[in-house]
Structures are given as C-alpha cells and as structure tokens.
Write a structure and sequence with these properties.
This protein has 16 helices and twelve strands. It has 477 residues and is α/β, with parallel strands linked by helices. The protein has three domains: 61 residues, no CATH class; 256 residues, Aspartate Aminotransferase, domain 2; 124 residues, Aspartate Aminotransferase, domain 1 (Alpha-Beta Complex). The strands form three sheets. Strands 1-7-6-5-4-2-3 form a seven-stranded mixed beta sheet, sandwiched between helices. A three-stranded antiparallel beta sheet has the order 10-12-11, covered by helices on one side. It has a two-stranded antiparallel ribbon with strand order 8-9. β8 and β9 form a beta hairpin. The protein starts with 47 loop residues before the first helix and ends in an 8-residue tail after the last helix. It binds pyridoxal-5'-phosphate.
Length: 477
C-alpha cells in the first residue's frame, strides 16, 4: 500500500477548498491589536477534492467492523445497524440541548425512560441509571452506591473481592473507590474456586465483583449460592455485565441474586466503540440500593416525563447531564427492533457461533477450558511458542495480512499466550469457516514469515513501546 503523506505535506500556497467573493462591505477590526495573530496560522492549503481523497483514503487504512471480521474477545465488536444511526441523527434528538425545559424535550425524556425499562426487563434489576458513559464508570458508580448503602447502615467494610480472571477495570474501580482489593482464585475449569472464596467472605467485605459468563467464556453456575453467602454478611454481589450478549433474553442477573450490575450499551446493544468511545455503561440495582442512585432520575406521571433531583441519599451526579444520549438512542433502537422475543435469539446465536468456531479450531489449538463455551473462548499458544517460537502476538499480526482484525491477545492474564475469540451472532457460517481456515493456514507458515508480519498493511510491525513512550503527535514545519 502506498504511503499517504500528511495533509500538511500536500499543502500548496494559495490553493483553496472554497473560494469566496471579494469582500464588498467595509472590514471591521473589532479585535484589539495585541490580540491579533502576527503571522499566518500555517494550516494546510489544499483543494476540496484533495481534502476528500486524503481523508477517505485514511479511513480505508484501518480494519473496522464495517469492512472486516472483528473477533475481539471480551469487547463484543458487533455490527452497528445503520437504522440506529438514522434515528440518532433525527432533528428532535440531535438538535436539542440539555438545558431546555422538560416540557420541550418530552420525546428525549421518553427515550431515557424507555431505555431504563428495557434494561430493567433484560436484567431483572429494579432500577437503572443511564448516566455512566463507560463500563468502568458504571463499576465505579455501583461501588459508590454500595458504599453509600453500607454507610447508611453504619457499616465500614474495607474489602472488595475480585476473581483472578476479571477484567482489569474491576480491581481498578474498587481501588479507585478506596477499597482494598482481594483476589479470588479460579479452578482449572475457569470458574471461581468456591473453597478459596468462602473463607474470604467476612463482615469486612463490601462487595464481590463477578463477570458472567466469565472472561474465559464459561458460565458461573454457582452465582445463587455465592449470593446467599454474601447476603449473610450484607455484602453486595456485583455482576459485570459486559458479557451480557451471551445470556441476553435467556437468563437475568437479577434472578440469580445479584444486587447490582453494569451494561455495556456499546458492546451488547450494538453501538459503535473502539478507539475510546463514545460509550454508555448504565448500571442496574435492586430496590434496597435505589435511594443511593445518581440524580436526576427520570420520572413519569400522567404521561408527563420529568427529571427528579429530590433524592436525599443519592451519591449525586456521576457525569454531566444524563450520559451519552446519542448512544442511548442507538441502543434503544436496537432493543426495540429485536423486541422482547428477538432478544433471546441474539444470545443463543452468539453462543452457537462461538461453539461452532471453537469446534473448527480445537484440534489445531490448545483449548484450556474444554470444547464448550458461551459467547467466547480462549486458546493458548504455548505449544507453538515452545516448538517454533511463534507467539500469540505473531499470529495476531499475521491475521492483519489476511484482512482480519486480531482477536484479543494476552488476556485473561491467567492463560499464557492467550488468544481470546468472540465471533458474535451476526457473522455467517462462511465468514467463520474462512477465518478458521486462515488461522490454521497461518500456523503452517514459516515462523520467519510470522515474525515479520504484518507485511500487507500500510505500516509493518510497530515499535509499540516507542510509540507509547515517545509519541510524535505534532507535525513540525
Ligand atoms: C469492556 C469491559 C469492561 C469495561 O468497559 P468499558 O466500557 O471499556 O469501560 C469491564 N468488564 C468487562 C468484562 C469488559 O469486557
């Protein structure tokens, strides 16, 4: 692929994307002299056509969900239906302001209200807030809610328990919230080790954070038992719902005994993510935690929607306004277009696709957690590493040469040389077959080819440490 020069390097003095007629009214010098720029700004000067081509070409030098298969384990990269975009772009949603009086934004408030009720129905929780704008922020919100709950009872537990397979944001949120993080071991089958967990559940535990299906793609079948243990000491059970895609419409965290959870609208409900956002990480809680939820709460009375700030025990605001409204609109459109009955198809199809792909790959790769999974599975490349010095990273890089986005690698940390694959429900059998064939083919290639990969991409293997430590983010004339 040819090198794309920077837009600055394409600049030619005097070239314009738009030209205006000569000014035929007196120019007004309203800026004081000392505030005026002394020299030109140094912006690139290009024609409109060059401008369009430049950015269109740049947009094609990437691997994205609209062009390629994107089996990123744990992060649920699913297709974003374009009807979501259509709805979010409607005037009544796009051109409103959060400071408008309630009476002029009834439709927007109805969207928030409806979304809360859809999420409550999907999860079995009693109340939802849409304010957090990432899963991690949802975790923090829920832990603050739990803290306020314990405070209200005059209790000061200091610990949060987190399984060793958990997403890094779990211990990070707990620690940010001021808790001591204690790690719980998992069993060889990937589920939480109950013998290790039980003695850790004491009066000093505020909360246990569990991901289900867990990070290695296995369903945690002991959640109801764990919930009983925790509730005996009034500790809360947090459900990391980032992997809700697997059970959507089939099982509900609220019915399993969980007290609070977060959703990743940008994963489970098909809104765009990657590259940092914009996200939406609502949380759901059971009744006893409702008084501590962030304000404002969206209310409905006699068909009129309003925002209620009068919650004396609330933790307050966690974010400006009501969260990422445009993302919530997209998520609601997705939920409504499937409807209650359609939801179950999402989870079942996602699990079927993952199991199909695992079946295609399990004879070539070591699958540490057996030959059944939920919505995602983890393979380990330690054998290849020992034999040929081929690592998970080499394989991930080589996949880019074949036009695939790499799966998640080196996560979860408990699996050496991990490759974590989540195909999601929208991919066809043909796509899954072709991907499996490519992976198997890569493993037969000369290790030297893999070490050099990628070679068909705009840039080859990057010095990632250098890029992180010494980034050059500004063009110097
Ligand atoms: C993605 C993810 C999170 C964090 O969500 P963000 O929106 O990225 O902050 C937490 N837990 C799990 C299991 C996840 O996959």
């Amino acid at each position: 692929m040819s090198v794309e020069k920077l837009i600055f390097e394409k600049s030619s003095a005097g070239r314009r994307a738009a030209t205006f007629p000569v000014l035929d009214v007196p120019a007004i010098d309203f800026l004081p002299k000392e505030s005026r720029r002394a020299s030109a700004l140094g912006l690139p000067e290009v024609s409109e056509q060059d401008l369009v081509r430049h950015y269109t070409r740049l947009s094609q030098r990437n691997i994205g969900i609209d062009t390629q298969f994107y089996p990123l384990g744990s992060c649920t990269m699913k297709y974003n239906p374009k009807v979501n975009e259509d709805m979010a772009a409607r005037d009544g949603f796009r051109n409103i302001h959060p400071y408008q009086p309630d009476s002029t934004v009834q439709g927007a408030l109805e969207v928030l209200y409806d979304m809360e009720h859809w999420l409550a129905e999907v999860s079995g929780m009693d109340a939802i807030t849409l304010q957090p704008t990432a899963g991690a922020q949802g975790e923090l919100t829920a832990l603050l809610v739990a803290k306020a709950y314990h405070d209200s009872k005059g209790r000061k537990p200091r610990k949060v328990l987190v399984p060793d397979s958990s997403h890094g944001t779990n211990p990070a949120s707990a620690s940010y919230c001021g808790y001591i993080v204690e790690t719980v071991k998992s069993l060889p089958d990937g589920t939480v080790d109950l013998e290790d967990l039980k003695p850790r559940i004491t009066e000093d535990v505020a909360c246990l954070m569990m991901t289900n299906p867990n990070t290695v793609g296995i369903f945690e079948k002991d959640i109801p038992t764990i919930a009983t243990w925790l509730h005996a000491v009034d500790a809360q059970l947090y459900y990391d719902g980032a992997n809700l895609n697997a059970i959507c419409g089939v099982a509900r965290p609220g019915d399993m005994g969980c007290d609070m959870m977060h959703f990743n609208v940008h994963k489970t409900f098909s809104t765009p993510h990657g590259g940092g956002g914009p996200g939406s990480g609502p949380i759901g809680v059971k009744k006893h935690l409702l008084p501590f939820m962030p304000v404002p709460r969206v209310t409905r009375q006699d068909g009129h929607y309003a925002l209620d700030y009068s919650q004396p025990q609330s933790i307050g605001r966690i974010r400006t306004f009501y969260g990422n409204f445009g993302i919530i609109v997209r998520g609601l459109v997705y939920l409504k277009s499937f409807g209650g009955d359609g939801m179950a198809e999402i989870g079942k199809q996602a699990v079927l696709n993952a199991n199909y792909l695992l079946a295609l790959l399990k004879d070539t790769f070591h699958s540490p957690y057996g030959d059944r999974c939920m919505h995602e599975f983890v393979l380990s490349l330690t054998d290849f590493k020992k034999k040929n010095d081929v690592s998970a990273l080499d394989v991930a890089k080589r996949l880019a040469d074949y036009g695939y986005h790499a799966p998640t690698v080196y996560f979860p940390l408990i699996v050496p040389e991990a490759i974590m694959i989540e195909p999601v429900e929208t991919e066809s059998k043909e796509t899954l077959d072709a991907f499996a064939e490519t992976l198997k083919k890569i493993m037969l290639e000369d290790p030297a080819v893999l070490h050099a990969a990628p070679v068909n991409t705009p840039v080859g293997r990057l010095d990632e440490v250098g890029a992180a430590r010494n980034p050059i983010v500004r063009w110097q004339p």
